[in-house]
Write a structure and sequence with these properties.
The structure is a single chain. This protein is of the alpha+beta class and 358 residues long. It folds into two domains: 14-106, Roll (Ubiquitin-like (UB roll)), CATH 3.10.20.70; 116-354, 2-Layer Sandwich (Creatine Kinase, Chain A, domain 2), CATH 3.30.590.10. The protein has nine helices and 13 strands. It has helices at residues 108-117, 168-181, 208-226, 254-257, 262-274, 276-282, 289-292, 322-327, 343-354, and strands spanning 20-27, 34-41, 54-57, 70-80, 89-96, 124-134, 185-190, 196-205, 230-232, 247-252, 309-311, 318-320, 332-334. Strands 6, 7, 8, 9, 10, 11, 12 and 13 form an eight-stranded mixed β-sheet that branches. Strands 2-1-5-4-3 form a five-stranded mixed β-sheet, covered by helices on one side. The longest helix is centred in the middle third of the chain and has 19 residues, at 208-226. It is globular, with a radius of gyration of 21 Å. Bound molecules: adenosine-5'-diphosphate and manganese (II) ion (4 copies). The site of one manganese (II) ion has 4 residues, from strand 6.
Length: 358
Amino acid sequence: MDGLDGQTNPFLDLDQGEAIQAYYIWIDGSGQALRGKTKTILKKTMDPKDLPIWNFDGSSTNQSLGENSDIYIKPVACFKDPFRRGDNILVMCETLDHEGNVHPTNKRNSCFANMEKCKDLHPWFGIEQEYTMFDYTGVHPYGWPANGYPGPQGPYYCGVGSDKVKGRKIVEAHYRACLYAGIKIAGSNAEVMPSQWEYQVGPCEGIEMGDHLWVSRWILQRIAEEFNVVISFDPKPIPGDWNGAGCHTNISTQPMREDGGYPEIIKAIELMGEKHVEHIISYDPSGGEDNKRRLTGLHETASIDKFSYGVAHRGASVRIPRQVEADGKGYFEDRRPSSNSDPYVVTNRIIRTICLGE
Ligand code: ADP
Ligand code: MN
Ligand code: MN
Ligand code: MN
Ligand code: MN
């Protein structure tokens, strides 16, 4: 099959007529893995309302039992498909049970409802997605020595050179593919641990944050397939003296962004402090268990047990950027969410605390 993949496959130039291919994507029963499948749509569209509800076998995705296994998938957001190109699309979907009710693993629905309630505040988010590349085995970090470990952390963060960074081709391809798709990717950088990278998505308003981040994760994993590399979103993929991976979440509302908005920022952070436990439960798909391995108080993290905040403080739960303090307005950064967190759950929890008083 090698040599017939991607752009080297001559059949992909064949004319497809009026029909387009829509790749329906949904979150499976793990709350962190994506599934997807293709449907032919007879008329070109980028509007999810034009696309039919479809279904899949939930007994194969840990979302239902064998004897009532149909789950419906409802299109909610469309992006251009950087793999098939042309008028073909990627389609983010919500899951519904066989009676058309919100499926228990569908975390978008309630996020959307709450975002609607506070839309006058125009909540913006920017998420810094960290991840780690593994070779095709999924257990050996990509580009690490066959036996043993690379030299200690220090030279890798934002580095250049084959001895410093591994997998840049994937990073570059992913960045460009996100731009093409219409994802609001904001930047990227090599991370502190070799083979670990970050990209940022945002600012996104309301529900858009979850839609864009989930599809950016799908594109990343799909691109890595072309390179025989496996992407891990585990928050602490290598135990020991190696940085973990998070999803720092940057937050602002309209009043925080306006002149004199600083007290609004402090008010929101103090509300978050009162709900620390509820937030930790929402910040990874295992109710805080995954993040326990990462939020140790070392490696630029705060302890999972205690809420703290500070200006320019990378060892705090929440950091206020230095520039924001200087400007007296702007946004703040919640450093707690894990790299495998669900952005629908994270952004929902945040606005419930700071906008809805829940
Ligand atoms: P860090 O300094 O923590 O590494 P990054 O530059 O990696 O920060 O990421 C900052 C993120 O904050 C980006 O995703 C950006 O889109 C987002 N951001 C910028 N301004 C705002 C704002 N006013 N509200 C919410 N998010 C914002
Ligand atoms: Mn079948
Ligand atoms: Mn960053
Ligand atoms: Mn980072
Ligand atoms: Mn950050």
